[in-house]
Protein: Asparagine--tRNA ligase
Amino acid sequence: MERTKISEIWNPELIGKDVCVKGWVRTRRGNKHVQFVALNDGSTIKNIQIVFDMEKFTEDQLKPITTGASLHVEGKLVESQGKGQTAEIQAETLEIYGTADVNDYPLQKKGHTLEFLREKAHLRPRTNTFGAVLRIRHTLAFAIHKFFNDHGFFYLNTPLITSSDCEGAGAMFQVTTLDLNNVPKGEDGKVDYSQDFFGKPASLTVSGQLEGELGATALGAIYTFGPTFRAENSNTPRHLAEFWMIEPEVAFNDINDNMQLAEDFIKYCINYALENAADDIEFLAKMYDEELVDRLKSVVSHEFVRLTYTEGVKILEESGHKFEFPVYWGADLQSEHERFLVEEHFKRPVILTDYPKEIKAFYMKQNDDGKTVRAMDVLFPKIGEIIGGSEREESYDKLLARIDELGIPMKDMWWYLDTRRFGTVPHSGFGLGFERLLLFVTGMTNIRDVIPFPRTPNNCEF
Structure:
């Protein structure tokens, strides 16, 4: 008999028909006359109740059915007489694929802390919480591809191995084939990279943006969606060493076009999740954040505030609020400042623009005042910055001057400057950290809980 996924079992047309389900046991209860097993196959947050009539089965047959065991059950789908479910399966045949010893299976009990589950990353996807998070992650990934495809963007695969540091962060994972126990060195005592695979230092990318700009100046509108890497030694609820970034880049867009694209895009993704992952979102709201659904609906129903950095700093300085980090013009705003603007002052998302050039990347277009650049950050409740972007500097001379000013090696940037020599155009783009978006949509508070296998300092087990 063909298997029916549990997410598809609630079809009224299947009532009274024989069905086949396969999955993992969540719970088992009952008495000597009847046994009830809650089965879940990962396709939905909902379990299907299997009813075992003990006139048809022996206790020895059912004894291996414990939490975590995997089953293959065939039987008739009938309307349920009990509370909590609309249908159940009256079992006719049972096959046990795999047992789970009650003394060893670490997810035997309910109510495990998220900290405990992080130590069981190989098994935590089987819990209701992480099943919900991972299904929402899939839903949002699909929404991202659908949005850009439907808006005429092309998906561009940018390199994961690079010789340039897009952000100037300096915290990159080096990629090498050199023998670290016998590193070749030149006469100057420095590492001889001529013997390395690429003949020069190479690292894992922190962003696909620079290469994305090359795609935009050929295809018009592109987006990247792939893993990026930061070697920052940050053990915080907001940092990962490996995370996923979405980075659209659009030729002929200015900063205003960029802001509108960011707002339309993120609203689309959140609305798509509300419509297509409602059961999982409602479960997480019930378990972790009762305001989650209202907050999501509020974001998609309100226009984002457009505010300059200078105006934002003035609001913060005049707020009378005592911040942990001081606020002044030229400061790189902290999460507490961003969240105050969003949660306390405006009570809706804010797009902050025109930052001081000293705290932003070299490639951002300078404003006429010579002090600020056409940068933008989208600020969200509970998160702070969720999107960062800018209009890019399209002038060869201005970009060259900025590169020289910051001392960026020309040997690493010649190819980027070439795009300003041959048919340069105004263009803009932004980056959205996928896990930051997931934190907002799921209501989770630690970024390690919205990625299947978190990579953080001293944590690379699987």
In short: Residues 128-150 form the longest helix (23 residues). The CA atoms of residues 25 and 39 lie 5 Å apart.
